Amino acid sequence: MVREADRKVTAYHEVGHALAAQLLPHANRVAKLTVVPRGRAAGFMMPDADDRLHVTRPALEDMIAVALAGRAAEEVVYGEITTGAQNDFQQATNIARRMVTEWGMSDRIGKVALASDQGSYLGGGPQMQPMSEATAQEVDEEVLALIDAAYGRVLSLIREHLNGVHEIVRVLLRRETLSGEEFSTLLAGGQLEEVPAVSLGKVPLPGLT
Question: Is residue 176 flagged as an active site residue?
Answer without folding.
Answer: no
